Each structure stands twice: as C-alpha cells, then as structure tokens.
Amino acid sequence: MTDTTEAATPRRRSPRPTLATQVRDRLLADIAKGVFPPGARLEEEDLAGRYSVSRTPVREALRQLSHTGTVEIRARQGVLVASLAPETMEQTLEVLADLEASSARLAAVRMSADAHRTLRETHEEMAHVIARRNRAGFDIINSTFHNLIHAGSANTILAETISQMRRRMLPYTQAQRMASPQPMAVSFQEHATILRAIERRQADLAYRAMQAHVLDAGHVPEDADARAAAFS
C-alpha cells in the first residue's frame, strides 16, 4: 500500500506581513536612513501619503513602534521619534552589548559547519564592499553578519530581544554614525576576530570580542559638539 501521508499533508505558507507591519518596516528604514531624526514629529496623514496607505495601518505601525521605544506618543505633542538622553543611551548600549555577546557565545557552541561557511562568505563579501567604499552596502552586510550569529545562537527569545533593543536605538544609531562614523575597515577586523572565535568554538573569546565590538561601534562621542549632534 502506498504511503500518501506526505502528499496529503498541506504545506504551510509563511503568513504575509500585514499592511501595518509593512508600514512599520518602511518607517523603520526611513528612521535608520535619517529621514526622520530623533525628535521629529510623525504625522499620521503625512505618513499615509508617503506610504500610499490609509491612516489605520499607520496608526497601528506607530503603536507597535511605541512599544519598542522607537517612537514616543506624547499628550498634546503627538508622535515623536524617540530622543534618548546620553546616560540612557549609554545604559542601553551596555545592555545591547551583553545581549549580542551572549548570542555570539551561544553561536560558538551551537553553529553548524554549514552556518560557519555562510558566515565566512558574508564576511568575505564585506571585504569587496569596503574596497568599493560602499557604505550602504556595508551596512546591509553588517546587519546580515550579526543576524546570522543571532540565528546561530539557536535562541529565538534572545534574537527577538536584540531586535527590540536595536529598534529602540535606531534613531540614535544614524545620528551617532554621522557624528562619529566608525571606519569600515575597523569593523571588518573586529568581525574577523568574532568569526575566528566562533569557527574555533571559543565561546568566551566570542563573547568578549562581540561585546567590545558593539561598545566600540556604538560609543557616544566625548566631543561636546559631536555629542550635541548625536542627540539633538
């Protein structure tokens, strides 16, 4: 008798993102690019026109972003892109560095050989982007590199928490990068150290290297003018 179990089992399709989720992601991208800097007021009607949707998904997208701290809903002021005080930013960065480092430590123990190859290929691709001085391409590959490590940790709660923390820091990230950009070559070398530690399954070294990398990349500039630019 022929086994038809596999044929009879319907394949699950990945759910399509809701319109509100699409608006949220597009707004996040605009915040990351500096289109809406910290403190910028976000009007539902303007956003609806920008993204060619009604105000309902815009309102839901803003509600979602308020839960992660990316935007703030204030009485009589409306919705604003979050502005974090310097001391709050430093504390948030410390937490994110520990979370990212924990992810790297777990990845060093749990990542498969295939995942190692993918991570190395991504790292090597970054070298080509740096050679072309393509900052936008670098940012994309940088995110991919970190996301692969998050996936390699095999801890979805940790990965989701890191994602939420990064969304909270998003308005600051672009402003800080403009005020004190980290050279791409420096980040590339730090990634190389992290990669070697993960490939060699040196969990403690992977933790320390990732923690130092995140703190270095997100360090708030001490220069008064640069600090003001980062948080204005």
Q: CATH-wise, what's the superfamily of the largest domain?
A: GntR ligand-binding domain-like
CATH topology of the largest domain: Four Helix Bundle (Hemerythrin (Met), subunit A)
Principal-axis shape: elongated
Largest sheet: 3 strands, antiparallel
- Which structural class is indicated by helix and strand composition? mainly alpha
**Count of alpha and pi helical runs:** 11
Strand arrangement across the biggest beta sheet: 1-3-2
Strand composition percent = under 5%
The first-to-last residue Cα distance is: 72 Å
Write down the secondary-structure element order. Answer: HHEHHEEHHHHHHH
Q: In terms of per-residue confidence, which ranges show pLDDT below 50 for 5 or more consecutive residues? A: 1-10, 220-232
CATH architecture of the largest domain: Up-down Bundle
How many domains? The number is 2
Kindly describe this structure.
- By secondary structure, the protein is mainly α.
- It folds into 2 domains: 19-81, Winged helix-like DNA-binding domain superfamily/Winged helix DNA-binding domain (Arc Repressor Mutant, subunit A), CATH 1.10.10.10; 86-231, GntR ligand-binding domain-like (Four Helix Bundle (Hemerythrin (Met), subunit A)), CATH 1.20.120.530.
- Helices cover 71% and strands 4% of the residues.
- It contains 11 helices and 3 strands, in the order H-H-E-H-H-E-E-H-H-H-H-H-H-H.
- It has helices spanning 5-8, 19-32, 44-51, 55-68, 86-110, 113-131, 135-152, 156-179, 184-199, 203-217, 224-231; strands spanning 41-42, 71-74, 78-81.
- The chain has a 3-stranded antiparallel beta sheet with strand order 1-3-2.
- Helix 2 (19-32) packs across helix 4, helix 6 (113-131) runs antiparallel to helix 9 and helix 8 crosses helix 11 (224-231).
- The termini are far apart.
- The relative contact order is 0.14.
- This is HTH-type transcriptional regulator ydhC.
- Keywords: DNA-binding, Transcription, Transcription regulation.
- Residues 17-84 form the HTH gntR-type domain.
- GO terms for molecular function: DNA binding; DNA-binding transcription factor activity.
